[in-house]
Design brief:
The structure is a single chain. With about 280 residues, this protein is an alpha/beta fold. The protein has one domain. The chain is built from four helices and 21 strands. The strands form three sheets. Strands 1, 3, 4, 6, 7, 9, 12, 15, 17, 19 and 21 form an eleven-stranded parallel sheet that branches. A seven-stranded parallel sheet has the order 5-2-20-18-16-13-10, with no helix packed on it. The radius of gyration is 18 Å and the shape is globular.
């Protein structure tokens, strides 16, 4: 079982590396994952009149329920083969985001009421948003905001994430160590990559972002309540023209290089495990 899981992760990273082009600026998410608005390993469930702009998938569980009445625009429910490539992209991105050096540690600080500039913000445990978080891109067309959260991400009802003074290449990433819950009527922006599950309460929205769950544990699901809206690229609904996916800025290493490093480490781990098993 352990060998199977390690092999699956290694193969996923190989696919992620193939998806990146080192000849030009690389997106943090691979091309396949970028087409998904919702992805989970343990299933996607929707209740009521939810709208998803982008692809939807679940692998290896291959369980997507509630579509219809939920509506998919600009995408479809994808096949397990494509879902697997997207999951591999998401895994590489998740590991890459978690490896970035923090600009500031915000552990214990409610994000509500803060105005932050592009950077990497670390929470060693949980993160909470009550009220409005303002992300000021400072006129950059490729601003990147990364939030590395050790455990849970929770937003209160009517919470808001607002990107200002930005451009079409701005991106926001939420790397969540366990589960994320968006409270009722939350207006959220950015790509949530959660180790386990993602839940959207009634009327919560993700503008120009994604809900990607179960990335590492393979037991996470996405649960959508009534009247949710998730759009991977809907600039008209996003403050500052935020488009949800940007090229990697020059101070950060390329995801392909990072994925290759992780791939090598996984390969060594598999080899050591097999050698130990042979001596038993």
């Amino acid at each position: 079982m352990k060998t199977t899981r390690l092999s699956a992760l290694t193969c996923g990273l190989v696919l992620s590396v193939v998806g990146y082009s080192t000849a030009s600026a690389n997106p943090i998410l691979g091309q396949t994952a970028m087409s998904f608005a919702v992805l989970a390993e343990a299933g996607v469930t929707s209740v009521g009149a939810t709208t998803v702009n982008g692809n939807v998938g679940s692998v290896p569980t291959n369980s997507v329920t509630g579509f219809p009445p939920a509506l998919i625009t600009g995408g479809s429910i994808m096949s397990p083969a494509i879902d697997q490539v997207a999951e591999s992209d998401a895994l590489a991105a998740y590991l890459y985001l978690g490896a970035q050096s923090p600009t500031q540690n915000l552990t214990g600080t409610d994000l509500g009421g803060l105005t932050l500039t592009p950077g990497v913000y670390d929470f060693s445990s949980s993160a909470q948003l009550t009220g409005t978080l303002t992300l000021n891109a400072q006129g950059s067309g490729n601003a990147v905001f990364i939030f590395d959260i050790g455990s849970t991400l929770t937003t209160a009802a009517n919470a808001v994430v607002s990107v200002i003074n930005g451009g079409p290449g701005d991106s926001v990433y939420w790397q969540v160590g366990s589960s994320a819950t968006l409270g009722a009527s939350t207006l959220f922006e950015g790509n949530i990559l959660a180790d386990t599950s993602i839940t959207l309460d009634s009327s919560a929205q993700i503008a120009c972002g994604r809900a990607l769950a179960g990335i590492v544990t393979s037991s996470g699901s996405v649960v959508l309540a009534d009247s949710n809206n998730i759009a991977i690229n809907n600039g008209a609904a996003c403050v500052g023209g935020y488009a949800g996916e940007a090229a990697v800025p020059s101070p950060l290493p390329e995801p392909s290089s990072f994925a290759l490093l992780v791939l090598g480490l996984f390969g060594l781990g598999v080899a050591q495990w097999q050698r130990r098993s042979a001596w038993r």
